[in-house]
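Hi there. Long-time user, first ticket. I'm pasting a complex I've been working with (about 1088 residues overall). I'd like to know whether the download I got is complete or cut off, because the file seemed smaller than I expected. Thanks.
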Amino acid sequence: MSTKRVGKILKISGPVIEADGMLGSSMYEVCKVGEEGLIGEIIKIKGDVCTIQVYEETDGIRPNEKVIGTGAGLSAELAPGLIGQIYDGIQRPLPLILEKTQDDFIRRGVIAIPLEYDKKWPFVPTIEKGAKVTAGDIIGTVQEGPVVNHKVMIPPKVSGTITSIVKADDYTVLDPIVTVKSNGTELEIPMLQKWPVRFGRPIKERLEPTIPLITGQRVFDTFFPIAKGGTSAIPGGFGTGKTVSQHQLAKWSDAEIVVYIGCGERGNEMTNVLEDFPKLIDPNTGEPLMNRTILIANTSNMPVAAREASVYTGMTLAEYYRDMGYNVALMADSTSRWAEAMREISGRLEEMPGEAGYPAYLASKIAQFYERAGRVSTLSTAERQGSITIIGAVSPPGGDFSEPVTQNTLRITKVFWALSKDLAARRHFPAIDYLNSYTLYTNELAPWFAENVNPRFQAYRSEAMVLLQKDKELEDIVQLVGPEALPESEKIILESARMIKEDFLQQNAFNEVDSFSSLEKQWLMLKIIIDFYHKMGELYNLGVKLPEMMNLPIIDKITRMKYIPNDNVGKELGAILAEIEALQVDAITNRIGGRMMTDLTDK
Amino acid sequence: MTETPKINPETLAKRIFKTAIEVTGPLLFVDLKGKAGVSYGEIAKIKLPDGEIRSGQILEVSRDIAVVQLFEGTSGMDVEKTTIQFLGETMKLPVSSDLLGRIFDGRGEPLDKQPPIVAVDEWPINGSPINPYARQYPREFIQTGISSIDGLFTLIRGQKLPIFSANGLPHNEVAAQIARQAAVLGAQAEFAVVFAAMGITAEEAQYFRKEFEKSGALDRVVLFLNLADDPAIERILTPRLALTAAEYLAYECDMHLLVILTDMTNYAESLREIGAAREEVPGRRGFPGYLYSDLASIYERAGRIKGRKGTITQMPILSMPNDDITHPVPDLSGYITEGQIILDRGLHRRGIYPPINVGPSLSRLQKEGIGKGLTRRDHKELADQLYYANARGNDLRNLVAVVGEESLTEEDHRFLKFADDFEQKFLKQGRDENRNIFESLDIGWELLKIFPNPKRELKRISEETINFFHLERRDPKINYNSRDV
Ligand SMILES: Nc1ncnc2c1ncn2[C@@H]1O[C@H](COP(=O)(O)OP(=O)(O)OP(=O)(O)O)[C@@H](O)[C@H]1O
Ligand SMILES: [Mg+2]
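Hi, the file is complete. Here it is re-exported in full:
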C-alpha cells in the first residue's frame, strides 16, 4: 500500500469530479471524496489531476474540498456471509444500511461494510500442519446456511507450508485460521479475502462446456440450451419478458449458486425477489431458493457510477464461489444500463464518442465481461472444476437489435434468446422468438442429452424446428389467400405447429406447476406432439379428415398436459403417448376410435 | 421552492458575483474569481439589468467557473450588469399538510393568490432512492371504474402506470376520470391527488381544475402548473416538486397519493435543451444519453414502503410524437414503468372511449393484485380469455380484409363478432360511468356467452371456473359481487 495522498477538488460535474494534487495515484484506486468522504474510484489520470467517478450523489460538494486516496482498488470482500445477502453496486448490504440509518431512503455517505466482522462461523479444517499448499487449495469448510458448504481457500498468489491451523470451532472472518510459511516469511490468513472487482480471479485452465444448465424452461432446455459455463444474451424491447425470464432462470436453474444483478432496473423487481425467494423451494435441494442466492441491487435511481461497478462486484462474488468448485449462474438485468452508465461517465470525461455516443471501448468492455464466464479447472493442487454461466439481458432502444450494445454482445455470447415484441403482444410467453434464436452449444451438448434424456431427443427437437419453420412459410401464404386454400396435409402442419407453440413453448411463469418443467416432462411433451403429428399423417392417408382429428378427446389432454405436476408425468404423459399410439381407423365406419391397446388385444 | 438562504448574511454577501462571462441558451457561465465555496447543485438568484429576479441552479462547478442553468431562460441577460447570488443550498420545497388544496406554479410559488404555506419542514426536491430492501411489493387493487383498465390492465396501489397518448387523443379525460373514480375496495381512505403540468395549455390545466372541482375533491388536490407559455427549463423542477409534495403527504401524513404528471414529453424536451446548450454528445433524436436515468429518478419515486401507511401511485401521461412508440420518451418510459396504457387513434376515430389499445397495453403488477380476496377468483382466467378472444377476432378482421369472409369457419365468425362486441360493450363506456369490478368482469362473461361450447372454445378458462362463473350456470343463491366468492 502506498502512503495516503490528499488532493483537492478542482471541478464537479454530476457523478464525475476532478482533483489535483493526486500525484502517485493509480488507476481504479478508491478515493474518499469531499468532507463527507464519499466513495469514488479513479478513472483517469493526467499529471497530478485525477478524474474520479463518485458512487454517490455529489450535490452540495464544493471545489477545494479534500480527496483522499486509499491506495487500494475497488475490491469485493469474500468470506462466509455472502449467501442470502442483498448488496448495492459497491457491496454495501442494503439491510445494514437500513438498520444503521433507520431510514427507508438511501442518503449518501453511509458506510456499511459488506460482511459482519464479529459474527462467528463454524470452521472445520480439512488440512493439517505441515501440508504444502498453493493458491486455491481448500483448507477448511464452513456451513454457510442450510445449502452452501463454503470452502475456505488459500488466496490467490499465496503458497507454502502450513505451519499452524486452528481446530474446528467458531471463528470470525477476520480471525487468522492458518499460518503459511513461504520464502521464509510467515503469513497469517483469515477466512476473509479481498479481490479487486475489475480483474478476473485466476484459474488453472478453461474446459470445454459439455453439460447443459438445466433451467426448467422448455424453450431454453429443449430448443436453445445453454451449457454450464456458457454465455447467453436475452435482448428485447420493454415488456417482452427479460426480467421474468431472468427470474425464472434464477429460480429454477440447476446451478448451485445464483448471483442476480439488478443493474439499473426497478426497485420493485428486487423487492419481488426478496419476497419470493425465501418462500420458493429449490427442486434440487429442497431448501428455500434464497439460501443459494446473492442479490446485487443498484436500481435505476441509484447512483450511476455504482451501477457501472455493480456487474463487476457481482462477477467477483460469482468467481469466488466458482473457485470453490461450484456451478454458478450469473444474471445481469440489464447490461444495457451498465453500458449506459459507461456512456454517461465517458460523456462527462469528454471522451471521443463512438457509435450512438457509447465510448469506443464499449466492445472490449462487453467482451471482457463475458470472458469471465466459463467452465474451468480451478486454481488448486487437487483437480477441481467450477463454472460461471452468464445470462445478460439487453434492452435495445426502440427494440431495435441493430444498436451497439446488442450487436457487441451478440458477437461474444454463444446463445441468443431473442425476445419478440410481436409474441409478447400476443401474450405468447416466454416471448422467445423460436425462429431467430440460436444456441452454438448444440453439438457439445448433444451427447449429454442423448445419454441423460433420450437418444432421440435431438431428432425430435429438429423435427419440431422444421415444423415451426414450415408453419411460418404457410402462415405467410394464409395471409395472402386464406386458410381454406391450403391442402389438408399442410393444415396438419399448421395444427401441429400450433401445438408446439401453445402447448409446449408457451410456459406460464406464474403458474405453480407450469413454472418449472423437468427434463423428463419436456421430453414426453415434445414426444407427444411430434408422435401425434406423425399419427395425423397416418390417419390422413387412411382418409380421416382433419376436423375429425381435432375433435378427438386427446386434443384436450394435450392442451392440458403442461399442468401435470412433474412427479406424475411419467405415468400421465405415458398414458397420453399410449393413447396416441393406439389411435386406429375403424375400417367399417371410417372413423377414428380412441381404442386402447388393451381393447384391441382383448378382441 | 424555497429561496430563503440558510447560511449567514455575511457569507451570503461574499457570494454575490457580477462576473458573468458567457450566456448560451438557458446557461450562464460565471467567473468565480478564485473565490471558493460554491457547491454543485446549489441554487442561485440572478438579478437582470432591468431589476428582474430569476432563479437558477449550478450544473457544473470548478474552482474558476460555475455553469448555471436558468429556469426562466436567459433572455435579457448580459455579461456586464447581471448579478448572481449563490444561496448556499440545493433546491427545497417547504412542506406541510397545508399543501393540500393549493395551486403552485412550476417552480413551487403560490399561484392562487394565497400566502406561502406554513412549512413544518423543507425537503430537497430531488428526493433519495428508496432502499429496495425497504420496499414492499405493491398488491392492492385500485378500482378505476373503467372496465378495460380494471379488467385487463389493473392499476395497483404504488404502481407507476403511464398513459401513452398522442395529439388529439383523450388522455386528459381518461386521467381525470381515473383521478375522480379511483378507489380501493373495502377501504374508506380516498386518494389525494398531486397534479403536475409541464407545458400543457392553460385550457387543459383548466379542464383538470374543473374536473377536480366537480368531484368536490379540490381540497385533496395539490397542483403544480407549468403551462405551455411558462419557461421551459422550469419543467425540470415541476415533477420533482410534485413528487416531493407527494412523498411528504404519503410518508408523513399517511395518505394514498395519485400523482399525475403531464406531459413527460415536454419535460424531456426541456432536458434536451439543456443538454444541447452544454454541447453534450446527444443520444437518440438529440436527447441526452442520461435521459433513462433522469426519467427513472422521477418514476422510481412511486411505490410502497414496509411499515408505512401511505403510498404513491404514479400516472404519467406522455405524448408520442407522430404516434411513434419507439420515440425515446415513450420507449425509455416503457423500460422504467410497470406497464403502459396505450391510446389508439383508430379506436378514437371509431368513437370508442376510452380508446385503449388492448394489444400492447399491460399492467405488470396486475398478476399479484387480482384474484380471490383482491378482486374475484375468476379475474385472471377471464382477463386472459377476453384478451385472447379479442386478439383472435382482430387477427381475423385483418384476414377478412384481404381474403374475404368466405374462408371463415363458423367459429371464426363468432370470434369476429366477439371482437366487435368487446369494443362496443367492454371497452367503450361513458366519461362519467363508474363500473365496479364485478360489473366489469360480468360484462366480460356476458360477451363470452357467444361461444356455445365454452369448454372447448374458452381454452384459457378452467372447467371449474366455467362451471361456477359462466352466466348460464350461475347459482342464484350465491352473491357474485364479492371478492371472496
Ligand atoms: N414467462 C412468462 N409467463 C407469464 N407472463 C410473462 C412471462 N414473461 C413475461 N410475462 C409478462 O410480461 C410482462 C413483462 O415482462 P418483463 O417485466 O420480464 O419485461 P422486460 O423485458 O424485463 O421489460 P423491461 O425492459 O421494461 O424491464 C410481465 O409483467 C408479465 O406480465
Ligand atoms: Mg425488465
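A couple of notes from our side: Chain B has a mean pLDDT of 91. The radius of gyration of chain B is 26 Å.
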